Amino acid sequence: MATAAPSDHSDFTVTPVSPALGAQVVGLDVSRPLDPSTLAVLRDAFQDHHMLCFRDQRLDDDQQVAFSTQFGPLELFPEKDKTKGKIEVYNVANVSPEGEHLAQDDQRVIFQRNNGRWHTDSSYRYIPSLASIMYGVEVLPDDSEGGETGFSNMLAAYAALPDDKKVQLEPLHQVHSYADIRRLEPTMPPMTAAERDALPPVTHPVVRVHPERDYRRSLYFTANTSLEIGGMTHEDGKALHRWLVDYVNKPEFCYFHRWQPGDLVMWDNRVLLHRAIPYDYARYRRVLRRTTVAGAGPIMGPFWPEARKAAGG
Ligand SMILES: [Fe+2]
């Protein structure tokens, strides 16, 4: 958990934004390459706070890609029509890359609506992402409602589970399917055969073990790629999924980020769920640009040999 005190690093500060997660970084220009000592401070802060907001940035797409690759190789987005200029830059917007305010029934806006469900990015991949990095180009005015990005801390959520729920969840998996977004948002056009072939459904453990955190455990599930937990009857799997979605809304796990122009928000997809809070899509323009740092390996469950060994089993 974050502490309340800011930490100074000669030219910039890192200050926690909530007890649950997150810190803001003020006084650092990330448009230029970072020196190794600054990168080391940021990696530590990212490990501790799970979400960093770099205030007052001015970035073009190339600079955002250059900043992001300092944390690892980037993912390419699976559907080119939702990217901006480069296939590494995902256009999270109700505005087209050409600047046109999109209709509410445009499939790119519907896709944004699906991101209003709790999720972690790229869970539909066999190796899901490590981090997402999102830059605020156009954001909602201060007096508008919605538009925040909500985060929920799955390390804290797992730790606070009742013991019987920990036992129940330990062996379980969820199916994550990119194509299933169409089940949740039926008006979206079908994927092409090539897209479906590139992104078959995958399963991930619902309890995730973190080797880089002394094998601590967190929850790992989504509400935007399927609506069931496996390993039980369909009805029980749906009910357990609903329970989890409700559970992670507890205020003590959550922080809701209100965007300012020039915010660059970087979050840990291994540890946090996030969701886009709905807003008046017809009235307001909102343009965010996302890059995604690829993960290093598949999700380790508590039943993996390494995890069992670490637990003394
Ligand atoms: Fe997302």
Concise structural overview:
The chain is globular and about 50 Å long.
Protein model, in words:
With 313 residues, the protein is α+β, with helices and mostly antiparallel strands. The chain is built from 9 helices and 16 strands. The protein has a single domain, classed as Clavaminate synthase-like (Double-stranded beta-helix, 4-Layer Sandwich). The structure holds fe (ii) ion. Fe (ii) ion binds next to loops.
Encode the helix/strand succession as letters.
EEEHEHEEHEEHHEHHEEEHEEEEH
Q: Please bin the fraction of helical residues.
A: 10-25%
Distance, first to last CA: 28 Å
Overall mean confidence score, pLDDT:
92
| CATH topology-level fold name | Double-stranded beta-helix
| CATH class division | Alpha Beta
Strand order of the largest sheet: 1-2-3-4-14-7-16-6-5
Bound small molecules, by name, code or SMILES, are:
fe (ii) ion
Largest sheet: 9 strands, mixed
Number of helices: 9
Named CATH architecture: 4-Layer Sandwich
Spatial extent as radius of gyration: 19 Å
Q: What's the shape?
A: globular
| Number of structurally distinct domains | 1
- What class, by secondary structure content? alpha+beta
Looking at CATH, the homologous superfamily is: Clavaminate synthase-like
Hey, roughly how much beta strand do the residues contain?
A: 15-25%
Which consecutive residue ranges, at least 5 long each, have pLDDT under 50?
Answer: none
